[in-house]
Automatic annotation (TrEMBL):
Its main location: membrane. It is an enzyme of class 7 (translocase). Part of a membrane-bound complex that couples electron transfer with translocation of ions across the membrane. The modification FMN phosphoryl threonine is found at T196. InterPro entries: FMN-bd (IPR007329), Ion_transpt_RnfG/RsxG (IPR010209). SMART domains: FMN_bind. This is Ion-translocating oxidoreductase complex subunit G. The chain crosses the membrane at residues 20-40.
Length: 228
């Protein structure tokens, strides 16, 4: 084949700028599709989260049929959780007549395999934690599950002391987890044999939640008393 025939059979090359333009268009369209999917699914995700939170509140506060969301602001005030409000969440739980029957608070601590996030019920009438529900954790199956289902362990949260000190700015006694079988005080949590780290995480989570929320709740209890 002579040189003239080779020239005639060569395919024309696509200019670099054309390839870049095509790739740029694909990237732009892909980004637009991702943004559209995100905007479409965001309300669905938010609604699913609302339902899961409501179920958790109703579990830790038996008899509750409605809840109100509050936040503890950066100034340490209890305020309604309106759109854009930031702070630690507190949930007022109410009966069918709109009466306050419990308050749900959340706490987190590092467990064996990562953070353990827990919701606790606080009863201002007894100044104590009266229930718990693990919201999420990566603890070892078979051991971590006991945090939520072991009846002996759950007894710790039937009347766990969370009284405030004389000045009302912290718990009178920090909530702690002790070795299984050695609990002697009402603010202690009897740990689970074989799941020491997970048990301690529950104690830390309960203490973190109560230390942050109980002083504010007790000071601003009137804001929670009736469902609006």
């Amino acid at each position: 084949m002579n040189l003239e025939a080779q020239i005639q059979t060569q395919q024309p090359r696509t200019p670099a700028w054309a390839m870049l333009r095509t790739l740029g268009s694909i990237a732009m369209i892909s980004g637009l599709l991702v943004a559209l999917v995100y905007q479409f699914t965001l309300p669905i995700i938010a609604e699913n989260q609302r339902v899961l939170t409501e179920k958790a509140v109703f579990r830790v506060v038996p008899g509750a049929v409605a809840k109100r969301d509050f936040v503890i602001t950066a100034d340490g005030e209890l305020a309604p959780a309106e759109e854009g409000a930031e702070g630690a969440l507190v949930y007022g739980a109410y009966d069918a007549d709109g009466g306050l029957i419990g308050i749900a608070i959340t706490g987190s601590a590092l467990g064996y395999a990562g953070p353990v996030n827990v919701m606790f019920a606080y009863d201002p009438e007894c100044d104590c934690i009266t229930g718990s529900k693990v919201l999420n954790s990566n603890e070892t199956p078979g051991f971590g599950d006991k945090l939520d289902f072991d009846p002996d362990f759950l007894e710790n949260f039937q009347a766990l002391d969370a009284r405030l000190n004389a000045t009302g700015d912290a718990l009178a006694n920090a909530i702690v987890t002790v070795k299984h079988g050695t609990k002697t005080r009402p603010w202690e949590i009897d740990g689970i044999s074989g799941a020491t780290i997970s048990s301690k995480a529950m104690g830390h989570a309960a203490n973190n939640a109560a230390q942050r929320a109980v002083p504010v709740i007790e000071r601003d209890l009137a804001a929670l008393t009736r469902q609006n």
